Structures are given as C-alpha cells and as structure tokens.
Amino acid sequence: MPQIRPITDLRNTTEISELCHAKKEPLFITKNGYGDLVIMSIEAYDEMLEALKSDIAVYEAEKELAEGGALVDAKEALAALRRKHFG
Predict the structure, then answer these.
(1) Residue 48 has what pLDDT?
(2) How far apart are CA 66 and CA 17, in angstroms?
(3) Do 35 and 53 have their domain in common?
(4) Are residues 48 and 82 in the same domain?
(5) Domain identity same for 49 and 80
(6) Which SS3 state, helix, strand or coil, does residue 67 take?
(7) In tens digits, what is the pLDDT along the chain, a chain of 87 residues?
(8) CA-CA to 66 of 20 to 30 Å: which in 18, 20, 21, 47?
(9) Strand, helix or coil at 24?
(10) Pairing relation of β-strands 27-31 and 34-39?
C-alpha cells in the first residue's frame, strides 16, 4: 500500500529518509490534501529506471518484429558475438 504523508512531515528528514529506505517504494507527499511530491530512495529510483529500460527494450523488440523484423537464432547470434569480441 502506498505511503502518503503531509508536506509538514518533511520537517523530520531522518524519519522520511528511513521510511523511504525501509519500504523501498515511493513516498507520496500531499499539500492541502492534494498530491504534490513523490520521494524515494536512490536504490528504489535505480531499480525503477532499470525496469523501465527493460520494458522499453521489450517494447521496441516487439514493435520491430510486428513491422516485419527478422528473427535471429540465439545460438548463431551468441556465436557471432563471441567471434567478434573474443576472437
């Protein structure tokens, strides 16, 4: 369940930091009862970016295949990479 806190809680930076690190998920900050900010640990942010990069790569591959892209045999592709990079 998402953690939601009022903006006044930002005064206690240590507690907010510990909460972000312990939960490993975003902390939503409200101002006057409405969403205003999202705070997260660097680790959670990095994980989110890595997941996004993977999702984009899968999307692009599926799009390329749908547009008539050719499939490549995995064993052949890996053999070609080994030859190219390891002689």
Answers:
(1) 95
(2) 44
(3) no
(4) yes
(5) yes
(6) coil
(7) 789 999 999 999 999 999 999 998 999 999 999 999 999 999 999 999 999 999 999 999 999 999 998 888 999 999 999 999 997
(8) 47
(9) coil
(10) antiparallel
Tell me, yes or no, whether 22 and 54 share the same domain.
no
What letter would DSSP give residue 71?
Answer: P
Which domain, by its residues, includes 70? 44-86
Please report, for residues 44, 52, 72, the alpha-carbon distance to residue 49 in angstroms, rounded to integers and kept in the order given. Answer: 9, 5, 28
Query: Do the strands 3-6 and 34-39 form a parallel or antiparallel pair, or are they unpaired?
Result: unpaired
Residue entry with tokens 């008539």? 68
Q: Which alpha helices (DSSP H) does 1-87 contain, by range?
A: 13-23, 42-66, 74-86
Count of domains for the chain: 2
Write down the pTM of the prediction. Answer: 0.70
Which pLDDT value is given to residue 70? Answer: 85
How big is the chain, counted in residues?
Answer: 87
Q: Which helix (H) or strand (E) holds 40?
A: none
